[in-house]
Design brief:
Blueprint: E1 3-4, E2 27-32, E3 38-41, H1 44-52, E4 61-66, E5 74-77, E6 83-87, H2 91-108, E7 109-119, H3 124-135, E8 140-147, E9 163-170, E10 181-182, H4 186-192, E11 195-196, E12 203-208, E13 210-212, E14 232-234, H5 238-246, E15 250-252, E16 258-263, E17 270-271, E18 275-276, E19 288-289, H6 298-308, E20 314-317, H7 324-331, E21 335-340, H8 343-355, E22 358-359, H9 360-364, E23 386-389, E24 400-404, H10 407-410, E25 417-420
Parallel strand pairs: 3-21, 3-24, 4-7, 4-20, 8-18, 20-21, 23-25
Antiparallel strand pairs: 1-25, 2-24, 5-6, 7-9, 8-9, 10-17, 11-12, 12-16, 13-14, 15-16, 19-22
The structure holds S-adenosylmethionine (SAM).
Length: about 425
């Protein structure tokens, strides 16, 4: 038997918190489930000012990821040639636009919060200077270089542009940080851990037992009749080195040089560096996508969310586009706030939450998803926007509240109802 899993609620009577003076610009127009997740339809400048008057949000956002317009002076369209968003602010106007919003984002962040700003080569240095000023140069953590697409047959007299950049800042020096690792590949294991220990059959590598710089303490003293090599000190005290040697964890070369054994089975994987090659945007016919332009790779968002937040934390993307950050956050059991100024983005997000994504191939060939029919959010006919959910493997987002500035604006959307079979 089909079970209804949602309730559509119209009008601004679902209030989930109140501001200090009881007034917000944005009001809930539809709520499904009872969670802290919020999707705002509006200019993030106004939305963030509203959020700053909400004590449940101000200073409680653990992570912000944004992928704003890049000052390309162009208009982006969906795969169906619908205007998705404009990117027409350039030069000083763009910098002022970013400046006034980054200040609000800082105020929304918790003291142990982090912010990631995705940009391309044109504005990344301008915004880096701005962020140094707003967040403090000492809170700059990384500039990640991301490979965004496969190599191109570039026609300009220049190198092919396949990279963009993510500026990573924290609000303070004690931000949430969960170190990320890539799994070992067979090829890398053979290169990095070439030895197998007799008896235990454990795979290991050999590393020096000394490090640069002289020391006057224990690590500068004699061990097994040897002083550390000139200009160096032992990595561990002679006592600790003895312990390792007794456990068979020091390898002695034929000419008597000690090396420490580091075992593969004690490694968490390959620590993630600041060049990311594995998170290309749509790169083959089987890539799942909403069809929204500049949609980012969801696995990249998951990496960022895992690194800089914990389960139950609040994650915000106030240039949400197709909602990649929001879906990733939802899947990883974080709460989220998404904001977008474009009705096309809101429409795409609602579709994505309720219907998942399609492969690029399905978009190109206009094949309707096998998973379920796309709803028509702007139809007045209820039958048009009812979704039958079959066994969808992707993560769907069911619990959130949609906010808009004024009830009339909100009524533009005809939200679908769900039916699970
Ligand atoms: C590059 S896209 C984001 C794409 C997104 N990362 C994704 O994975 O789909 C930038 C988005 O910012 C939105 N935007 C631009 N100016 C905005 C503003 N002032 N307030 C809220 N959203 C805005 C645009 O409508 C657009 O959807």
């Amino acid at each position: 038997m089909a079970t209804g899993v949602s309730k559509t609620k119209w009008n601004g009577d679902v209030q989930i918190s109140t501001s200090e003076n009881g007034q917000f610009m944005f009001h809930p127009i539809w709520q499904n489930g009872n969670s802290a997740n919020r999707l705002y339809y509006g200019d993030n400048f106004t939305v963030m000012n509203d959020l700053l008057r909400d004590n449940t949000v101000k200073g409680n956002v653990r992570l912000i990821y944004i992928d704003p317009p890049y000052a390309t002076n162009s208009v982006f369209q969906t795969r169906k040639q619908q205007d998705a968003y404009t990117d027409l602010l350039i030069g000083d106007d763009y910098i002022v636009f970013m400046h006034e919003r980054l200040i609000l984002m800082k105020e929304l962040l918790s003291e142990d919060g982090s912010i990631y700003v995705h940009l391309d080569k044109n504005m990344v240095f301008h915004i880096k200077i701005l962020m140094d000023k707003i967040f403090g140069a000492n809170n700059f953590r990384s500039m990640i270089t991301r490979k965004k697409c496969k190599s191109k047959n570039f026609t300009k007299n220049s190198f092919g542009n396949i990279a963009d950049y993510i500026l990573f800042y924290t609000k303070s020096t004690n931000a949430v940080w969960n170190k990320q690792y890539d799994p070992w590949t067979d090829e890398k294991i053979l290169k990095e851990y070439p030895f197998i220990e007799e008896g235990t059959r454990r795979r290991y590598k050999r590393v020096p037992v000394h490090a640069p710089g002289t020391r006057n303490g224990e690590t500068g003293k004699m061990w097994r009749g040897m002083m550390p090599p000139e200009g160096k000190h032992w990595q561990l005290t002679p006592n600790k080195l003895d312990e390792l040697d007794n456990k068979g964890e020091i390898y002695w070369s034929q000419n008597g040089n000690p090396r420490r054994k580091v075992y593969l089975d004690e490694s968490n994987g390959i620590a993630l560096q600041d060049i990311w090659l594995d998170y290309l945007d749509i790169n083959n016919q089987n890539t799942q996508t909403t069809g929204y332009p500049t949609e980012k790779n969801i696995d990249m968002l998951k990496r960022i969310i895992l690194a800089s937040s914990n389960k139950g934390d609040l994650v915000m993307d106030c240039f949400a586009g197709s909602g990649t950050t929001l879906v990733a956050a939802d899947e990883l059991d974080r709460n989220w706030i998404g904001v977008d100024i474009g009705s096309e983005a809101i429409k795409v997000m609602l579709n994505r939450f309720q219907n998942g994504t399609k492969t690029l191939d399905e978009h190109i060939n206009n094949i309707k998803s096998q998973k379920c029919e796309m709803p028509n959010l702007f139809s007045n006919d209820e039958n048009d926007n009812r979704i039958i959910i079959n066994n969808i493997s992707q993560h769907l987002v069911a619990n959130y509240t949609l906010f808009a500035n004024g009830n009339d604006l909100g009524r533009e959307f005809k939200l679908p109802s769900y039916q699970q079979v």
